[in-house]
């Protein structure tokens, strides 16, 4: 993270080149530094120097659940914190405040609510019956419970969910199947009273009878007596959080504030997602409550508070959907202002950057609610992502595991909507082969991590935020998740055997991010973020899946897109059949993904104008039927295309064929279609990133409508080479290879086509080195014969995680220029010849230039580092059915690129 606005990172080509060669901290990987105890100065210096050496630019200290909670924010903690930040500054690292203990910003390890019970989370619960008596009981947070008793103990005092301060807030009689008109909803709040309450339940009674065919719905509020979470609707709670959880650190840092410490990062602020025995209706979790919410809702909706509340549960008519959307708009605005607004005002006063991310129900998926499917995001700081982002100085999102997903694209979209660009992406690993998600993925390879980072940059990330680097790797005697650091969302990448190769990943990926920075994405399609539909219909509605389908298919087809809000559309201009937004993005088509409820007629007017001017408006699923600012007008056939069902690849291909062809044109001739990012600079030049994350080579043809000069920006080295006067470019992209190219249009058609590849074809002998290998496991002095056809885990080293040394004496009978190729490696390798290191690789292709070798014998040494999985999972429930492959899995090959004479090579 960087204190400067994004648009001043690089303003000229010279600045862009310098930034590419030596990226600043804003582009380099950042990480949470997990503290499990208070470190001494020597530990701080040793670990921070290690992080710096491995290419990190930014570090955030995070006290995890293994850290004794009573020491959090203690004098000793703050002294160590200041020591660490001072050392980081000396080393040239940037730092920020991770603003809480463990996570869920706002509770400050429970300090916010200590002695302030009025700030604890307060919720609305409800029950619907056909009886005059009822109860609220069995209130539990299943989302938190699923993570085990230690997380329950972190969030709740003594691990128990207790309640108090019960109060009737609303009660209504309504028809069993219809609440869409006020005529059939009767407010009976003053006729319902509590009849009994304790710490886990309450009961109530209605002073009349519930008529046949009618139901009684009662809303009851209660404040948690044991939760350490705050009421995010109260500015006073946010102010108290700042006072006890952030300000003491800032005050202690003195002159270290602003540089090296320049920002505050919040993480998933959210109250408990409670369910109970009587829950029913459209809303899937309890709702935060303060008295002020009543007046706000009544002013915004012009309906009584009880009438507005019943709309949250039942009904699908126009009146109910409009009322429901307006309620959540009011609720979200109050929450955003109370929490994020308070933090932003404080950060502005302190001259600090505010960043962080809210709950993302789409984390790890493309569907808007395909991640945290057990929660209703409308009750949390979530859903209104464009609105929340207005309170940040810099956008940040969360990503789960190592696949392409919506989060970075939505993060970039909200940033551009709010006058910025790109985002920070926190990436964490959850277990794939064990039911305990916190067991993490110690089997993670640097190749997998690198591929994900490049995908994130193509999707809108500027900085990769790793979760995390560890102070300690925990204990081998304890398999308890969370409390044992090694099973607290591992891996701690600095305890992976491949960690010494991390700097290679850091340098290359930072340069890819810096390369992208000066250009604006070339995104022909805009997808409306259907906010009011999400509020009115709920997370299970088709809009969530339709949005995900459009996003996933468009990217798979090589068509970039951005998500835009209704405000973006309303403020946009229409020029030559294109929608031009205030963010500088221009779109040929706008997509409405099963959007049934919309905020404003101004949005529809603009879309009608776009269609009339020759632009494209594509709809899928249900069409808009409800406007929040008035009746739905009769628009006629205003959409270019309406797909009745969920969009599929075939239908989207047909739609894309109707759009004008602009910018660089890419076609894939063979193999997997590579990842691509295309952006345009203010001077008209194009920047293109191509990345092949598939298993087979891909061949791509690249054309412009004119001739072009091409600059090849090499992220592995920071170098730049040129080819002038091209008419076309054919690139062979090997698996895991990435190309960064800057295309400068020239007058005319260009003079020549160019075909390029990263690797020259063999021109001489190829020798398979399959025999006479010996192996040494780590620091052991013992050596043993080994096969290079399979991993060491099946050859007597089942739980060895570290660096294994393969040795062989090879004979070169043909002098010439030679390359060593390792066809299959798990997972990072360094090659030495006659004791001199030749090169290091953390991902494929594992090729090593040996240079010109004279005929003769040479001592070849291959040091391979695997993952920590076989060591850390040994003897635990997280082991899985098979051991993780380690070492060389296929015989190395010697390849002659230039041979002085015909001959053979052997080992």
Automatic annotation (TrEMBL):
InterPro entries: Galactose-bd-like_sf (IPR008979), Ulvan_degrading_GH (IPR053161). This is Carbohydrate-binding protein.
């Amino acid at each position: 993270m960087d204190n400067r606005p994004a648009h001043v990172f690089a303003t000229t080509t010279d600045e862009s080149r310098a930034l590419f060669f030596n990226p600043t901290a804003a582009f380099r990987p950042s990480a949470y530094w997990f503290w499990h105890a208070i470190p001494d100065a020597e530990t701080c210096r040793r670990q921070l120097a290690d992080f710096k050496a491995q290419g990190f630019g930014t570090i955030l200290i995070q006290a995890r659940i293994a850290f004794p909670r009573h020491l959090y924010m203690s004098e000793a903690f703050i002294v160590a914190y200041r020591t660490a930040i001072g050392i980081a500054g000396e080393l040239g690292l940037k730092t920020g405040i991770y603003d809480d203990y463990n996570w869920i910003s706002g509770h400050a390890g429970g300090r916010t609510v200590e002695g302030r019970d009025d700030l604890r989370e307060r919720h609305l619960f409800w029950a619907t019956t056909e009886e005059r008596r009822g109860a609220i009981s069995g209130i539990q947070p299943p989302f938190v419970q699923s993570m085990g008793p230690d997380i329950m103990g972190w969030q709740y005092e003594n691990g128990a969910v207790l309640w108090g301060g019960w109060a009737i807030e609303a009660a209504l009689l309504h028809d069993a199947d219809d609440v869409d008109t006020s005529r059939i909803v009767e407010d009976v709040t003053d006729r319902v009273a509590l009849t009994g309450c304790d710490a886990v339940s309450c009961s109530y009674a209605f002073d009349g009878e519930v008529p046949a065919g009618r139901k009684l719905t009662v809303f009851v509020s209660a404040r948690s007596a044991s939760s350490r979470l705050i009421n995010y609707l109260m500015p006073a709670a946010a102010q108290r959080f700042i006072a006890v959880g952030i300000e003491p650190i800032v005050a202690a840092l003195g002159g270290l504030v602003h540089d090296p410490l320049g920002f505050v990062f919040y993480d998933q602020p959210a109250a408990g997602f409670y369910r109970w025995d009587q829950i029913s209706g459209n809303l899937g979790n309890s709702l935060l409550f303060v008295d002020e919410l009543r007046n706000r809702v009544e002013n915004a909706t012009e309906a009584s508070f009880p009438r507005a509340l019943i709309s949250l549960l039942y009904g699908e008519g126009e009146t109910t959907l409009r009322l429901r959307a307006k309620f959540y708009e009011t609720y979200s605005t109050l929450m955003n202002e109370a929490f994020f607004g308070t933090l932003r005002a404080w950060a502005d006063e302190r001259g600090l950057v505010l960043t962080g991310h809210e709950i993302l129900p789409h984390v790890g998926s493309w569907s808007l609610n395909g991640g945290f499917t057990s929660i209703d995001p409308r009750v949390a700081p979530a859903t209104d992502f464009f609105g929340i982002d207005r309170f940040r100085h810099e956008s940040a999102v969360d990503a789960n595991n190592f696949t392409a997903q919506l989060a970075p694209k939505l993060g970039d979209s909200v940033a551009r909507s709010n006058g910025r660009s790109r985002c920070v992406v926190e990436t964490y690993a959850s277990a794939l082969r064990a039911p305990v998600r916190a067991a993490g993925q110690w089997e993670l390879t640097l190749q997998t991590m690198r591929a994900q980072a490049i995908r994130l940059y193509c999707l809108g990330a500027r900085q990769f935020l790793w979760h995390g680097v560890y102070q300690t790797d925990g204990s081998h005697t304890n398999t308890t998740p969370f409390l044992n650091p090694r099973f607290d969302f591992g891996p701690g990448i600095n305890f992976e055997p491949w960690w010494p190769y991390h700097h290679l990943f850091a340098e290359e990926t930072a340069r890819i991010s810096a390369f992208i920075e000066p250009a604006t994405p070339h995104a022909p399609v805009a997808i409306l973020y259907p906010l009011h539909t999400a509020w009115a219909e709920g997370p299970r509605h088709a809009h969530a899946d339709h949005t995900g389908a459009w996003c996933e298919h468009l990217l798979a087809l090589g068509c970039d897109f951005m998500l835009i809000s209704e405000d973006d559309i309303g403020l946009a201009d229409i020029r030559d059949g294109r929608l031009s937004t205030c963010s500088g993005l221009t779109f040929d088509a706008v997509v409405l993904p099963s959007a049934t409820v919309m905020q404003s007629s101004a949005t529809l007017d603009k879309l009608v104008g776009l269609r009339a001017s020759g632009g494209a408006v594509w709809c899928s699923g249900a069409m808009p039927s409800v406007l929040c600012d008035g009746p739905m007008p009769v628009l006629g056939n205003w959409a270019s295309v309406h797909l009745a069902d969920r969009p599929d690849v075939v239908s989207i291909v047909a739609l894309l064929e109707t759009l004008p062809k602009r910018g660089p044109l890419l076609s894939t001739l063979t193999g997997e279609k590579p990842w691509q990012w295309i952006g345009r600079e203010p001077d008209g030049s194009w920047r293109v990133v191509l990345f092949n994350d598939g298993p087979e080579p891909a061949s791509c043809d690249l054309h412009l409508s004119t001739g072009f000069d091409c600059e090849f920006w090499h992220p592995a080295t920071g170098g730049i080479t040129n080819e002038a006067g091209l008419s076309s470019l054919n690139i062979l992209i090997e698996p895991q290879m990435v190309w960064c190219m800057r295309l400068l249009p020239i007058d005319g058609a260009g003079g020549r086509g160019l075909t390029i590849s990263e690797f020259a074809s063999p021109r001489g002998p190829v020798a398979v080195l399959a025999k006479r290998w010996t192996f040494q496991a780590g620091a052991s002095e013992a050596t043993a014969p080994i096969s290079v056809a399979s991993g060491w885990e099946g050859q007597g080293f089942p739980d060895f995680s570290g660096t294994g040394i393969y040795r062989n004496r090879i004979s070169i009978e043909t002098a010439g220029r030679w390359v060593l190729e390792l066809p299959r490696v798990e997972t990072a390798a360094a090659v030495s010849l006659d004791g001199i290191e030749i090169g290091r690789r953390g991902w494929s292709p594992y090729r090593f230039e040996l240079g010109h070798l004279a005929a003769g014998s040479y001592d070849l040494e291959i040091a391979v580092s695997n993952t920590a999985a076989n060591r850390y999972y040994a003897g635990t429930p997280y082991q899985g059915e098979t051991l993780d492959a380690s070492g060389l899995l296929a015989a190395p090959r010697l390849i002659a690129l230039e041979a002085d004479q015909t001959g053979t090579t052997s080992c």
